[in-house]
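pinging the channel bc i need a second pair of eyes. not urgent but kinda urgent?? the chain im working w is below, pasted from the shared doc
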Amino acid sequence: MYDMWALGCILYIMITASMPFDDTDVRKMIKTQLNGSIFTSLFLWTEHSMALKQLLNSLLEPDLNRRITIKGVKSHQWFQQGSLSKIKQLLSISDTTLF
């Protein structure tokens, strides 16, 4: 389950080019992580889909028992729609058809 947390952090960094939590004050960072403060800022993003926000919310869920699993990530709506579905289609094309 910790790997899912790390995946959420990496995805957040890839999407925003910034860290999900301010690590200049470790006590404050832990408090922010545990109380879910990041989720408020996620929903203020207007340029990203609700599905992406929900996925990040599920990955960065502080409660280990409620955090999404890898199976849940793979079947998440964000991977089934938009640009990612196009990438999946491209990846499923055999190498011989690309040349």
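so The longest helix spans residues 2-16. and The two ends are 41 Å apart (CA to CA). — does that match what u expected or am i reading it wrong
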